[in-house]
Write a structure and sequence with these properties.
Strand order of the largest sheet: 26-25-24-23-29-28-27
Shape: elongated
Structural class: alpha+beta
Number of helices: 59
Distance between the termini: 149 Å
């Protein structure tokens, strides 16, 4: 029984601190009883809660209000405060400040007039009932009764009513019914709920759903369960209380244990900023105060909204529970939804009452909890039964069995306080049960069956709702309440008097009477029906919802079983075959369980001694099992293996045994405290259970111990049915329940004995676990994995997080040195200390929770260090002995093939190449064999880092895996720690990333010591960043690396070569820069023939003497050069620049020196000494009118002195393209900005600005169209847009869309310029007329950086115009490239490897948008040039983006640059001569290391690749050529791309080397030379599709959607490594078809090609390459000298053309049939190129089938084929009497050569040709002059392997010819034929 009400309180308005204000505070006038109850003290702060919005006076009388506030005391007891507030008038005569209680009572009563005076104010007064029971209606009625008695003036004593109310007692639960009366003629019936554990909700849940809706309530439900802060807002206090009550009712069976304040008073609003979770209600008046709360979920009940802040993430319910719950709620709230679409809806059924609907909604949530927590009792661990049950929940096992390991919601719920309370309250095995217990135990199967049948779900919900309703209303037929109420409008009537002061004595006397009576009565004992809580069916291990790929497959399990039985039967070979399959199968959970079960069978008496091989196999399988174990071991695999790792062992030597645990320590699970706790509690439960089982049952105790421990820990779903049944009969919880039932009946001694037994069981387990933990935490080699231990959390346990740590302990190991404190000693004590601390923390926690006595605990603390020390000593012996084991046979190291001049620096270090994020190699979702991980060695040479090895998976086969990259391309080297595939231990490793898009992720073999690894790193670093550029491979190739470290310029050469001279020349030129002037001595560079000889002595001193006398001009004018000085220029004239200037008609040096005025531009040698600009070439093109001496001044306006020079001229429009560095602050920008009055004296800067203006004017006037213009107003009236658009092509459609092309150009320009630079297009998209650009168009556009040209207003009279564009900086390119590298070659396998993640990271890298920007700017410039305007590109320093743009513009505008020769010239001119800083941007030396790699040139090549892809027929070179350059511009194999400018190359003597040394057969120093040589041998750089259209200007599409990711970034060939070192990439030739020895048919030539392993393009070359190869092979077979491929190809093309001419058709210059329509030339034919001959797949579009080809075309095709073959038939066959190959000795000192000889009887001559197919005769021997034909003898240099008798001589009147046939027979035939000819004559 309990009191209905504990206190009655009367609270009134008390004036506030400021006189006269209407704000006040509450005062307690009276409270009953005045003394606190002993069991329930009076709650503080009631006056705040009576008026939550504050105590205020009101101008009018409000109706009485009622609400219930909830207060929580310090013991978490809730007190319900029912508050009824009414208003009473305040006397106007009395100031509110001085009114006291006495005056209020003694005050005069106001005259009973109907009207209230206007100044009248009303004060609130509140009646409060405080109770621990929640009977809202009873409280409302009781307080209403008291108020009615007062207002209506009933003749009932208020004291009696209140006394009765306070003494009324009612039963708490049990479903009893009690009628009470307060003595005022009233009657109320109170029903108590059947069970007090079920909450009472009335209608609150239904109201909550009505106010907020399903989705919002579900969100609040999840938020409350996952401990978020929830705030309700409403204008109604009662609504707030109801909403909070409703939300709590939904959470059943969990209890909310945080702050719960349904109504929060205004004065306490700062509570909202508390850091703990809460559910609080606040009046909407204070909504503004809640605005700045950033982590509070606000539910507005009046507006029906729920606002979740951005920083808050509410995890949703796991699917499918979320959708099932949602649909069930819809069925309850909107039953007509199901019928809404029916054609004939059934008659409407009456909707449930609100109270019933409330219970139905709660039933849905009750079902939800039953489904969420089904089987929870199987994961409870009973740790102690007596004196009180101690129960723990095995969270990890529960999640694992439910397959919800990843589910955020359930994880948070299980970690929350509410669930902890649930376990301690409901885990108890023997207690009263309620609806939830029955539901979760018995109804789960039914709910699973009902899932997809809504009507059955609804039926179940209604059944549950009935039970919930019955619990609240056990007696439906309730007799009516009878309670008096005040009359209508009574609050408006003036009451006879204020609420009277009550007599305390009377009330207290009534209370005392009642208590005395209660004490006399016998205590009402509540009979509790306790029972064993049903556990329900054991949870079947539900397969993970995401459907694991490796589901339980019987075949896989069979493989695992077989392998284990082979191991234990000693059939090692069989086991070895199966092992890879087993390791793969062990990724599935079922196979892992199977493995643990099988291994258990082989353990006898807790021990199994194995031999070395068996031990290795078992350990590898265990490691594989543990590899995917998370820290919490959800699937109980580590738990099942724990007893096994201490059982399997091997004898190392007498007395030394190694157990398996020493080999499986490197797994994160062992260092997770939660895992050990769960294991410990599981084992304790097993032993406690055994303690209480009957002796009869105990016989199978030992079996149960092992098995049940496992079962409880992880896998209760056993296959063994008998054991399962037995376990079900007597599970640990059943035993505990039985014991709890018997406990009260036992004697005191018996109870003590049981408690003691349990305590000692727990204690002995704690000792056992201290040992176990030391086994798995102390490393075998205590020095080795110290750091890992700390990483895993032993060093600092408070910071342990259960994050999943993968095999490679994430992050670089360097960071982990300072993990723990500051003390780092590599002593064993360090490890020991960490392990002792870890074990002590564990022991403290579990022993305190399990009630171990403090003496025992102290004993344990003393014991732990001894256990650890003892184990360390044992391990030392094991470690020592294990080192002596014979090493496992490792595969032989495969040596890589090296280039000529490449030397090995470090011989092979054994490593494992681990898979990275690219899936192809590891056979991921792409399929294919798992080539990686591979076992082999890494070699470091002077040129490359090379890995060669074989896949570790023996099923893949004997494939050699090669991965390599040039040392110079290394961009990042990172230490990692990774698990070797064949080994258990984590090994040190390295991850090397290169800018050639290669990644070597290696784990060093254990035999490689850390010193060797360190040496490797140091050597690598030294080779990557040599101190000087001469340390790079391009210079050192061939010279030994290991000699003295090459210090540059240490020894003085005895006879200085040209290199020395040129170096001195430059060194001294440095002095001239500045204010010094130069006079020149004679200097003759030696001619090329003299290169090797000593230089004449008079030229050895300095060539430039510096004189201080100032001269009128800064430098000697070019025209005044002495003839001898011009020779200095010879070398410069030979450079690419000059050759190109000549080709473009920009003048030659000779014409410029003679000052021929006709040309607008001239070549100036002003920079020949590199005195004006170091980074420019020696010869430059400037306007004719500009004097050399002004150039120095102009150059100062530009960054790096890179003043504008012409680099290209359009042959059609004569517009020129100029380039320069960006402007300094002054200069043109200064000109435009400072239009104010000039300062009186012109400064130096001003004058140079004027010079600069003149210079630009000169450029403008040098253009033919502008030369005669007087002012800058040039019109372009006759230039129609169609004429504009007719030159060039867009994208890859040649014929279509030409007119639209120009409008696209407009768009590009105006977008880039940010203003309407190019005129507005018309609405239809055509460009504005009459011109493509606006009519008043500038003659020169200066493209500059937006940031530089800020605030510039172009002057309309100027003839140039600024185009500000935004460009990206180099640092952005670097950052973008890093991201691109990571996207294309990810370092570690991604979690959800999906194409989307790759594309996302590609997009984030912004690489393609940079390419887009470059192409966009280039197309803009091309448009401007094509329209006749000149363009000056003046961006950044003029050597990065400027170079990219200028090169692209020339490539797009001029077809010459799209040939092999032209592209070389373009790169030499724009990139090398104009000083792109290759060494600086590529970080070639130690000095540039910090700068990092900036792929400016690579970006340019990517742009070219994009254009090539869109226009495949416009380029002579293949895409392989671009990849080749991309690879070798960073590889340092050639010297071409070294250093930053011509100046530096001269200084090192590189510029004049290339031509001179070409005669030597040394390895090529220049990449161009190499390309040239290789092109002669193979068509690898040639594009067969090349069919250029003359004067084509290309305009590629530049939108990101049109760009392709270059396969250079993604493709690799593991069979041979990168294919760009041609000598290395040529693998063995493909075996040809051969006859089988048994004479059968030849074997098929089909072979399997693996992606990412084989070079597909070599295995299956394109048709043309194949034909050329075939031709060469046939020629070789016939013994004829083979012809060059290019000659053959050219001839075939020529024949094709002539064929077409004969047919009278236009001549397509391609091998394609002319039936290919014209516009398809760039669309229908796609070329895939490859490293081995361009692969041509002529995939013409489908409509080019034979049906659409005209018959003439077909005949033409037939004819052309015949001509093709006629090429190879010899002409004039009737004149060839005899022919064949003979070797002929050349003239004096010439070698023997094979020639094709033809004996012609008709003409009586012996002719010879170079080749059989040659039409041009090389020589003739007239037979009339022949004297004799005699057998000869071999002379020097004759062909070997030929019989002596095959030689014969032909003697003529002039000389003797020596011949040699291929064999004696042929020789005889030739002699006979010649003799017969002679005799015929």
């Amino acid at each position: 029984m309990a009191r209905l009400a504990d206190y009655f309180v009367l609270v009134a308005f008390g004036p506030g601190p400021r006189a006269g204000s209407e704000e006040g505070h509450g005062q307690i006038l009276q409270r009953f009883p005045e003394k606190d109850w002993e069991d329930n003290p009076f709650p503080q702060g009631i006056e705040l809660f009576c008026q939550p919005s504050g105590w205020q006076l009101c101008p009018e009388r409000n109706p009485p209000t009622f609400f219930i506030a909830v207060l929580t005391d310090i013991n978490s007891e809730r007190h319900y405060c029912a508050c009824l507030t009414f208003w009473e008038p305040v006397e106007p005569s009395q100031a509110p400040a001085c009114r006291g209680e006495e005056e209020e009572e003694a005050g005069e009563r106001p005259s009973p007039s109907a009207l209230v005076p206007p100044t009248q104010l009303f004060a609130p007064k509140t009646l409060v009932l405080v109770s621990r029971l929640d009977h809202a209606e009873v409280f409302r009625n009781s307080l209403g009764l008291i108020y009615t008695i007062h207002v209506e003036g009933l003749s009932v004593s208020l004291e009696n009513v209140i006394g009765n109310l306070l003494t009324c007692t009612i039963p708490i639960t049990g479903g009893s019914q009690r009628t009470i009366s307060l003595g005022a003629g009233d009657r109320q019936v109170i029903q108590t709920p059947l069970t007090d554990s079920l909450p009472v909700s009335c209608c609150s849940v239904a109201l909550l759903f009505r106010q907020l809706g399903i989705t919002n309530v579900l969100a609040l439900f999840c938020a409350a369960l996952t401990e978020h802060k929830i705030l309700f807002l409403s204008r109604s206090y009662q609504r707030l209380t109801d909403a909070c009550r409703g939300l709590l009712a939904l959470l059943f069976p969990l209890r909310y244990s945080f702050t719960y304040v349904p109504i929060l008073p205004a004065q306490l609003l700062e509570v909202l900023s508390t850091p703990t979770p809460f559910i609080i209600g606040v009046n909407s008046l204070f909504q503004s105060a809640t605005q700045e709360l950033l982590d509070v979920i606000v539910a507005d009940l009046d507006g029906g909204t729920v606002t979740v802040p951005e920083c808050v993430h509410i995890p949703p319910l796991p699917e499918p529970l979320h959708s099932q719950t949602h649909s069930a709620l819809c069925m309850v709230l909107d039953p007509e939804l199901e019928l809404a679409d029916l054609a004939f809806p059934p008659p409407a059924t009456s909707a449930s009452s609100l109270k019933m609907q409330d219970k139905e909604l709660r039933a849905v949530f009750l079902r939800l909890f039953a489904q969420l927590l089904q089987g929870y009792r199987w994961c409870l661990h009973i740790v102690r039964i007596h004196p009180e049950p101690v129960i723990r929940f095995h969270k990890a096992a529960f999640l694992g069995q439910r397959g919800l390991v990843e589910d955020d919601f359930l994880l948070k719920v299980l970690e929350g306080m509410a669930f902890a309370g649930f376990v301690s309250e409901r885990g108890v095995p023997y207690r009263t049960t309620d609806l939830f217990d029955e539901l979760v135990a018995n109804e789960v199967k039914r709910m699973r069956a009902d899932e997809n049948q809504p009507h059955r779900v609804l039926r179940h919900v209604k059944e549950l709702a009935e039970q919930l309703y019955k619990n609240e209303n056990p007696y439906p037929a309730v007799t009516m309440h009878k309670v008096q109420r005040p009359g209508e409008g009574s609050h408006r009537r003036v009451p006879p008097r204020p609420f009277p002061r009550l007599d305390e004595g009377t009330v207290q006397w009534i209370i005392d009477q009642a208590t005395a009576k209660l004490q006399g009565a016998p205590p009402a004992v509540r009979a509790e029906k306790k029972a064993t809580v049903p556990s329900g069916p054991p949870m079947a291990a539900i397969v993970e919802r995401n459907g694991a790929v490796h589901a339980n497959s019987a075949r896989r399990l069979e493989v695992v079983r077989n392998c284990i039985s082979y191991v234990f039967e000693g059939k090692m070979l069989e086991a070895k075959k199966l092992l890879p399959a087993v390791l793969r199968a062990l990724k599935g959970r079922a196979a892992r369980r199977c493995l643990t079960r099988e291994l258990h069978l082989h353990v006898q008496q807790n021990r199994a001694v194995l031999d070395h091989q068996q031990f290795d196999f078992v350990v590898r399988m265990m490691n594989c099992c543990l590899q995917d174990c998370t820290a919490l071991d959800e699937h109980g695999i580590a738990a099942a293996l724990l007893p096994l790792v201490t059982a399997f062992c091997r004898k190392l030597s007498p007395g030394v045994t190694q157990f398996a645990y020493s080999c499986v320590q490197e797994h994160v699970v062992w260092s997770t405290p939660q895992f050990w706790e769960a294991m410990f509690y599981g084992d304790v439960q097993t032993h406690i259970r055994a303690l209480y089982l009957e002796p009869a049952e105990e016989e199978d105790g030992p079996v149960m111990k092992g098995e049940v421990g496992l079962a409880e820990a992880g896998a209760p779903g056993k296959e063994d049915k008998e054991e399962e049944e037995e376990e079900e009969e007597r599970s640990a919880l059943d035993v505990a329940s039985e014991q709890r039932r018997l406990w009260p009946t036992l004697g005191r001694e018996k109870q003590q004995e049981l408690v003691q037994k349990e305590e000692s069981t727990v204690f002995s387990q704690a000792i056992h676990y201290a040992n176990r933990m030391s086994y798995l935490l102390l490393p075998l080699d205590s020095s080795k994995s110290r750091l890992l231990r700390e990483r895993a959390g032993l060093g600092d346990l408070e910071s342990v997080s259960n994050s999943l740590v993968t095999n490679s302990m994430a992050g670089s190991m360097a960071e982990s040195y300072d993990t723990e404190s500051g003390f780092e000693d590599a002593e064993t004590s360090d490890v020991a200390g960490a392990v002792v601390r870890f074990i002590n923390r564990f022991v403290d926690k579990v022993c305190t929770e399990s009630g171990v006595t403090s003496e025992h605990l102290k004993g344990l603390h003393v014991m732990v260090p001894d256990i650890v020390q003892m184990h360390i000593e044992t391990l030392e012996a094991v470690h020592r002995e294990s080192k002596r084991l014979p090493p496992i046979q490792k595969p032989k190291l495969l040596r890589p093939s090296l280039l000529p001049g490449e030397e090995c620096v470090l011989d092979g270090l054994r490593v494992y190449l681990l898979p990275d994020g690219r899936e192809e190699g590891s056979g991921g979702s792409v399929g294919g064999p798992a080539l990686l991980p591979a076992e082999g060695a890494v070699f470091l040479t002077t040129y490359r880092v090379i890995f060669t090895g074989m896949p570790t998976d023996p099923l893949v086969g004997e494939q050699v895996v090669v991965r390599s990259f040039p040392v110079a391309s290394l961009t990042k080297e990172k230490r990692i720690s990774a698990q070797a595939p064949t080994d258990q231990f984590l090994q040190d490793g390295l991850q090397l990333r290169s800018c050639t898009f290669q990644l070597l992720k290696m784990a060093f073999d254990e035999e490689v010591g850390s010193e060797s690894a360190e040496v490797f790193r140091k050597h690598l670093h030294k080779l990557r960043y040599p101190a000087d550029i001469r340390g790079t491979f391009a210079f050192t190739a061939g010279s030994s690396v290991h000699t003295a470290s090459r210090q540059p310029r240490t020894t003085k050469e005895k006879s200085p070569s040209l290199r020395t001279l040129s170096r001195n020349l430059v060194k001294n030129a440095k002095k001239t820069i500045g204010r010094q002037y130069v006079t020149r001595k004679k200097y003759n560079p030696p001619s090329w023939e003299q290169r090797g000889q000593p230089v004449p002595p008079e030229d050895q001193d300095d060539e430039i003497s510096v004189s201080e006398e100032p001269e009128p001009s800064t430098l000697t004018p070019a025209s005044a050069l002495k003839p001898s000085d011009r020779l200095t220029m010879n070398s410069l004239v030979e450079r690419a620049c000059c050759r190109d200037y000549q080709r473009l008609g920009l003048g030659t040096l000779s014409s410029s020196l003679s000052r021929a005025k006709s040309e607008p531009f001239r070549v100036t040698p002003v920079n020949r000494m590199y005195a004006i600009c170091r980074s420019y070439p020696g010869l430059l093109i400037v306007p004719q009118s500009i004097q050399d001496n002004t150039l120095q001044r102009i150059s100062r306006c530009y960054r790096q002195n890179r003043f504008p020079v012409v680099c290209w001229r359009s042959s059609r429009s004569k517009a020129v393209l100029l380039r320069s560095g960006g402007l300094h602050g002054k200069g043109v920008v200064g000109l435009f900005k400072a239009q104010n009055a000039p300062s009186p004296g012109q400064s130096q800067a001003d004058s140079s600005s004027l010079e600069q203006e003149k210079y630009l004017q000169a450029v403008v006037s040098s253009m033919p169209r502008h030369a005669d213009a007087a002012s800058g107003r040039n019109t372009l009236s006759g230039f129609s847009s169609m004429h504009m658009a007719s030159h060039g092509k867009w994208g890859s459609i040649r014929a279509g869309g030409r007119s639209s092309g120009s409008s696209l150009g407009v768009d590009v320009g105006s977008r880039l310029a940010g203003k309407d630079l190019l005129g507005t297009p018309q609405p239809n998209g055509a460009p504005s007329e009459p011109g493509f650009l606006r009519p008043q168009r500038a003659a020169l556009y200066i493209i500059g950086d937006k940031a530089q040209l800020k605030g510039v207003r172009p002057d309309p009279l100027q003839q140039w115009e600024l185009v500000p564009i935004e460009v990206f900086e180099v640092r952005q390119v670097k950052a973008s490239f890093k991201k691109l590298l990571k996207a294309c070659v990810p370092g570690c396998p991604a979690g959800e490897q999906s194409p989307a993640s790759y594309l996302r990271s590609l997009e984030e890298s912004e690489w393609l948008s940079q390419i887009h920007k470059l192409l966009q700017v280039s197309v803009l410039v091309v448009e401007l040039l094509d329209s006749g305007s000149s363009v000056l590109v003046s961006l950044e320093d003029g050597w990065d983006i400027t170079t990219q743009v200028v090169s692209l513009v020339q490539l797009l505008s001029d077809p010459y640059y799209r040939t092999l020769e032209g592209f070389r010239l373009l790169v030499e001119k724009e990139w090398l001569s104009f000083g792109h800083r290759f060494t600086h941007r590529g970080a070639h030396t130690l000095a540039g290391q910090s700068g990092g790699f900036a792929p400016i040139f690579l970006q340019f090549l990517d742009c070219v690749h994009q254009v090539h892809t869109q226009f495949p027929m416009e380029f002579e070179f293949s895409q392989f050529y671009l990849k080749f350059l991309s690879y070798h511009h960073v590889s340092h194999r050639f010297r071409t791309f070294l250093l930053d400018s011509d100046y530096e190359r001269i200084e090192l003597g590189l510029l004049y080397e290339e031509k001179g040394e070409r005669k030597s057969q040394q390895a090529c120093k220049s990449v161009w030379e190499y390309v040239e040589r290789l092109s002669k041998k193979t068509p690898v750089f040639y594009n067969y599709m090349y069919a250029p259209e003359d004067t084509e200007v290309l305009r590629p599409y530049s939108n990101v959607s049109n760009l392709k990711v270059w396969d250079f970034y993604t493709r690799e060939t593991l069979a041979e490594g990168p294919p760009y070192d041609w000598e290395l990439a040529q693998g063995p030739p493909e075996p040809l078809e051969e006859e089988r020895p048994d004479g059968g048919a030849p074997q098929s030539r089909r072979r399997v090609i693996w992606p990412c392993y084989d070079s597909r393009l070599r295995a299956q070359p394109d048709a043309i390459s194949r034909l050329l190869e075939e031709l060469q092979r046939l020629e070789a077979e016939l013994g004829r000298p083979s012809e060059r491929w290019k000659d053959t190809w050219d001839r075939v093309k020529a024949a094709q053309r002539s064929e077409a001419r004969q047919d009278g058709r236009s001549t397509p210059s391609s091998l394609l049939m002319s039936s290919v329509s014209h516009h398809r030339r760039s669309l229908g034919v796609y070329l895939q190129e490859g490293p081995v001959g361009s692969t041509l797949s002529l995939s013409l579009d489908s409509d080019q089938s034979s049906s659409s080809t005209p018959s003439s075309g077909r005949q033409a095709a037939r004819r052309s084929t015949s001509t093709l073959y006629s090429q190879f038939q010899t002409a004039e066959s009737e004149n060839r009497s005899y022919e064949g190959t003979l070797y002929k000795k050349g003239a004096f000192m010439k070698p023997w050569k094979a020639r094709w000889f033809v004996l012609d009887k008709t003409k009586h001559q012996l002719r010879y040709y170079d080749h059989r197919v040659d039409t041009e005769c090389k020589g003739v021997i007239d037979l009339a002059e022949v004297e004799s034909v005699t057998p000869g003898t071999p002379s020097m240099g004759a062909p070997k392997m030929v019989d002596e008798k095959a030689f014969f001589d032909v003697k003529t009147t002039r000389r003797v010819y020596n011949f040699c046939a291929q064999d004696v027979h042929l020789a005889q035939q030739w002699v006979d034929r010649l003799q017969s000819c002679l005799s015929d004559a």
